[in-house]
Write a structure and sequence with these properties.
With about 450 residues, the protein is mainly alpha-helical. The chain has 15 helices and 2 strands. This is Sodium:proton antiporter.
Length: about 450
């Protein structure tokens, strides 16, 4: 394919990325699904020449790792800026309104990892380390492809007539069942990327010849505690520092909120991620925490919408690239190693494992509506079902296979690719009617936490 053809394809694809969200707003098809299908079709034509990514090649695998890494951290910054409900680590009263989030992270995600790993090891004959890696890679709800079930932009769940002087720690949001589902899935996606990484590390420790017991000690002591804490602290420090600079700097030239310069959001996400990784913390958690800390600096300021818009546009562009390349690869060899076992894993995860684990996590002594974080039975079922698999899974697998030789790597890539495609199809078709049904309930003001 000529360079001119690539330019034409890029232009058409970018145009689709711009117009699809509006065109498909009321149709039971997500933009992600259309873009993925476009990529599949392109891969079947001469237009796909030169666009095929072969993950067996080191340079292509590194490309996947870096592109997906950037896509995830951009999405996480947007998520952090978009969340209206407060979370103050020094005010335990704010933690209760995040009850669905903690349940999904501390119960649903480990259970999903365990069930997928058990399925891979006991039923499909994978090596224990490979089975654990498969479970860890496929466990997180994706902050990128879950855009159809994410919260809106900053201020979207705060009433227009709400007073501006309400303290950050007081929950001033109003919501429908749809909003509560979106909040739970958004916050889960914002935090679980960082929390899934320790399980990926554990699988590599076992793969390198370490015992599961000694690996578990390192897993808990270093990855599950130290790196999580460091990541969150770095994100909060960077976010608060930049927040103070943006809104309250003595020098007028440094008060970026008054200048309306939204590109500071990109500087913030890159700074938080880089600082956390250098400090041996989880960068994904740092970016999400940074976004929330910046938002907390001036909770109701319009500048957050400007920053969110810039981040969202960059996220949309990066998502376009990832989906097109994934679609091309799906029809050009990525699924070559897919077998009945891989199809079984994908179906089990999307249809059984995630919905079951999510339902159990949310159904035991749940918070009731209209309490903040309260979900009725329909809301719990929808939240459990919409565990979208996506770009984060590609990043984890690219990182892990780049760190060491992983047995069954080709099969893992085929299975993960098929699982993501299945999730995009199933969740992409279901999201519009399900969320519309939940949204039809009357809006309710959130009760005090």
């Amino acid at each position: 394919m000529s360079a001119e053809g690539h330019f034409l394809l890029a232009g058409v694809a970018l145009l689709l990325a711009v117009v699809l969200p509006t065109l498909l707003r009321r149709v039971a098809v997500s933009p992600a699904l259309v873009l993925l299908l476009v990529g599949v079709v392109v891969g079947l034509t001469p237009l796909g020449e030169g666009l095929v990514v072969d993950v067996a090649r080191e340079q292509d695998r590194a490309l996947v790792e870096h592109v997906t890494e950037l896509t995830v951290i951009v999405a996480l910054m947007g998520v952090g800026l978009a969340i209206d409900r407060p979370l103050d680590l020094l005010r335990p009263s704010t933690w209760r309104s995040w009850s669905p989030t903690w349940r999904l992270l501390l119960v649903a995600m480990p259970v999903s990892i365990g069930l997928v790993a058990l399925l891979g090891w006991a039923a499909l004959g994978l090596a224990p380390a490979s089975a654990l890696l498969l479970g860890a890679v496929l466990s997180p709800t994706d902050p990128v492809l879950a855009s159809d079930v994410r919260v809106g932009g900053p201020g979207s769940s705060i009433a227009d007539d709400a007073p501006d002087e309400v303290p950050y720690a007081r929950d001033a949001t109003v919501s429908t069942d749809s909003d509560e589902v979106r909040f739970a899935l958004t916050t889960e996606a914002g935090l679980n990327d960082g929390l899934a990484f320790p399980f990926v590390h554990l699988s590599l420790i076992v793969l390198a010849g370490g015992s599961f017991v000694s690996g578990a000690v390192e897993f808990v002591g270093l990855y599950l505690v130290v790196e999580i804490v460091v990541g969150v602290l770095v994100g909060v420090v960077v976010g608060r520092g930049l927040g103070a600079l943006m809104f309250r700097a003595r020098a007028e030239s440094l008060r970026f909120a008054e200048q309306g310069e939204p590109l500071v959001a990109l500087a913030a996400l890159l700074t938080a991620y880089g600082a956390a990784e250098l400090a041996h913390g989880f960068g994904f958690l740092a970016v999400f925490a940074c976004g929330m800390a910046v938002r907390a600096a001036e909770h109701r300021h319009d500048y957050h919408r400007d920053m969110h818009d810039v981040v969202q546009r960059l996220e949309r562009l990066l998502t376009l690239v990832v989906l097109l390349l994934l679609g091309v690869s799906l029809s050009s060899g990525l699924l070559a190693a897919l077998d009945v076992r891989g199809v079984a894993v994908a179906l089990a995860l999307v249809v059984v494992v995630r919905p079951l684990a999510g339902w159990v996590a949310l159904a035991v002594r749940p918070r009731r509506a209209p309490e903040p974080g309260g979900l009725d039975a329909r809301g719990r079922l929808a939240t459990a079902f919409f565990g979208v698999r996506g770009v984060g899974s590609l990043y984890y697998l690219a990182w892990a296979t780049g760190e060491t030789d992983v047995p069954d790597a080709a099969w893992l890539w085929s299975t993960v690719g098929f699982t993501i495609a299945l999730s995009v199809v199933v969740h992409g078709i279901a999201s519009t009617p399900v969320m519309a049904r939940l949204r039809s309930e009357p809006r309710r003001e959130t009760a005090p936490a």
